[in-house]
Specification:
Layout (H helix, E strand, L loop, with lengths): L1 H51 L4 H9 L12 H7 L10 E7 L45 E12 L19 E11 L4
Antiparallel strand pairs: 1-2, 2-3
Length: 192
């Protein structure tokens, strides 16, 4: 009788140990997700502030590439790269978007972003070439009254724990389970 009880306690300990280990890995996964989300939110505010005071596209690229996001891979693997990171020839899984709005508040009815052809090409997303650089061209964006919306997204945050994957729409049979983290900030342009 005594040997059966000892065997029973070993089995019970094994079951509890497995569940406890899965729970600990789930806590670590959620912790990494939260940490990365806080880092991307903070990075978005920093990049937005730099954008509003007149930093150029090259400066913003340097800021974004310097962000430290735990759990976000900087080198996409092939199945993920096909829908994530092919735009613009960038291999970086952190995607920066800057939109300029004039005369309206973004999100209001009828408020659309300014066309890239009216944004100076030294700024993020601009395609207009101004021959009088560094002197600003007349009525070329960004202007002091423009509203700027900066968005950062990291579509490659990987969830490792099988217990957590179903919460993000992934099956346990998938090799990789990725979560998209994103943040945006809206500020008024103060540069020039």
């Amino acid at each position: 009788m005594r040997s059966r009880q000892r065997g029973q306690s070993v089995v019970e300990f094994g079951i509890v140990a497995i569940l406890f280990t899965l729970l600990m890995f789930a806590v670590v996964d959620f912790g990494l997700l939260l940490n990365s989300w806080v880092a991307i939110s903070s990075g978005t505010r920093q990049v937005a502030r730099a954008t509003t005071v007149g930093f150029l596209a090259t400066d913003l690229t340097t800021m974004v590439s310097g962000l430290n996001l735990p759990g976000v891979s900087r080198t996409p693997y092939s199945p993920f790269a096909s829908y994530c990171c092919g735009s613009g020839g960038s291999d970086d899984e952190i995607v920066l978007t800057v939109q300029y709005y004039t005369g309206c508040v973004p999100g209001a009815a009828g408020c659309n972003p300014v066309s890239a052809s009216t944004v100076d090409n030294h700024y993020w997303g601009g395609t207009f070439s101004c021959n009088t650089w560094p002197t600003p061209c007349a009525s070329i964006h960004p202007l002091r009254s423009d509203m700027i919306v900066v968005s950062l997204s990291a579509p490659g945050m990987e969830v490792v724990t099988p217990l957590v994957r179903p919460f993000f729409g992934c099956s346990s049979s998938q090799v990789h389970c990725n979560v998209r983290l994103a943040s945006s900030a809206m500020m008024r342009y103060e540069g020039q």
